[in-house]
Write a structure and sequence with these properties.
The chain is mainly beta. It has strands at residues 5-8, 17-21, 35-40, 47-52, 57-62, 68-72, 74-75, 83-88, 94-98, 103-107, 113-118, 131-136, 142-146, 151-155. The chain has one domain (35-155): 6 Propeller (Neuraminidase), CATH 2.120.10.
Length: 158
């Protein structure tokens, strides 16, 4: 997070290969502020989903391009607010932990507009304060960690 770049390390390597260099902390495209979640795009060897917590976005990056593609994700027309972890289910749906909006958002394949699947974006019951990590088990139950409440919530198969 501090160096604002993505580096590939081969097994037993002493030096890594910089895949995305966004080391010039800024607001422009191609400049990372606080990269957080990373996920290789299914079927691709040179593209990733990358969340940037301080720039409030998830974008598609191509290795070596130095700049994110123009694909940005929003949730029902609202902005993400400090997205952290990202994961994908077996059907290719992208899930984003939208920390400061107290929710988890899902993006169907080939869509840049998501739907809220957990949380409401407000502090209501069940309370999600600050969504941290998200993960699925083999039965597609969703686990959500809340870093403010020090709890992990299980949501039955979505």
């Amino acid at each position: 997070m501090r160096n604002k770049r993505v580096v590939k390390w081969a097994a037993n390597a002493t030096n890594g290969t910089i895949l995305i260099d966004g080391s010039s902390n800024g607001a422009a495209n191609g400049q990372l502020k606080n990269p957080y979640g990373i996920l290789l795009i299914n079927g691709s060897s040179n593209q990733i989903y990358l969340s940037d917590q301080n720039k409030d976005y998830v974008g598609i990056w191509t290795f070596g391009a130095g700049i994110a593609n123009t694909t940005w994700f929003t949730a029902n027309g609202t902005d993400l607010n400090q997205p952290t972890q990202i994961t994908m289910d077996r059907y290719g749906n992208l899930y984003v932990a939208d920390m400061n909006n107290q929710r988890v958002v899902v993006f169907c394949p080939n869509s840049t507009t998501g739907n809220v699947v957990v949380g409401t974006g407000t502090n209501t019951t069940p309370t999600l304060q600050h969504v941290g990590g998200i993960a699925f088990d083999s039965n597609l139950n969703l686990y959500v960690s809340d870093i403010n409440e020090n709890k992990v919530f299980k949501y039955a198969r979505l």
